[in-house]
Amino acid sequence: MGIAIETLRPRIAGYNLIDCEVKDKDTLYLLGREDYTQRKGWRDSQDAPPEGKLAKRIFVLRLNNAEDKKWGHMHLAGMDTSVCAMSYAPEEKILVVDADAKVWAQNPNSNGFEPGIPYKGNGGLLAGSVNRAKAFGGELLACATQRQLFKRVGPSSWELVGAAIPVSESDFRDCGFHDFDRFSENDVYAVGGSGDLWHFDGKAWRRCKFPSNWGLSAVKCGPDGNVYIAASTVIYRGAGDKWERLKTKDQMSLPIKDLVWYEGELWATSDYGIWTLKGDELIPADVPSGVKVCSGNLAVRDGVLLLAGYGGAAYKRDGQWTEIFHDHEVREWFETNRDKVWTPPK
Questions:
Q1: I want to staple 171 with a disulfide (CB 3.0 to 4.6 A). Which of 4, 175, 221, 228 is the partner?
Q2: What angle do CA 184, 186, 191 make, to 5 degrees?
Q3: pTM here?
């Protein structure tokens, strides 16, 4: 039985978790996407609905609240593939950003959509699709394909980090960015595409040499001074133009999605599992089986490690894992309680 599961089930039934975020040690966010395969009467032979037709829901878990007030949620319609991230300045709020740079923002005083990053065709800056957003102190940054990194300088206001990076016709299909991280605003790494790795020194972007042309999916600038990059199912460690491939104990079948640093070590996850780096080898993380099934996305802040995916969600705090909920429990409930699910007001 999960945390306030009776309150959560009617609101999350029929949804999969696609991202997560930690505001502080007592406040966690989960981003859900409608699972169209759970619609009543759905047949596998049917075509999948367009992503923009699948509703998203952002859930907040306030761990210090009373049992019947732990969960809050908002229903979001019309958003494409989405991610979530905290913004701490000029206001503290959770944001949901979709591939088209549409932004939904929430704080205790207001919530709703705000203008995102306009496309070049409309006189703006955006050339590709937004696929990652992260907070660094008071700054919120987001990366997009076609080698673009943006900084949010205020509600409805974004600026490009550094000068625009040229993208040739031959690069168009295989270039980044899919993830980014930094040691400081003058030491930024961004990755994506087929071995497409770039470094920003506060003045200019430079393409770094990388020993693989596999798709780069995640990057972490570690407190140990090393940069860690996921190339499909493999981790590389290094900086600049020097990289070494690390060993992987598991035979992974899906690309690594997230890399984070927690309790002095690197953590990695995909929809397949969760791992930690021990020395030069990535090994299965020593976590309970009920935690492992929640693999998919990772978030870290304020001493909390949050794990969320198609199997559910769990978090670690003060050395202890807590399983928030498991998807199979919600699915079982949904099968016989469709009349009790929460529906958004018209």
A1: 175
A2: 80
A3: 0.96
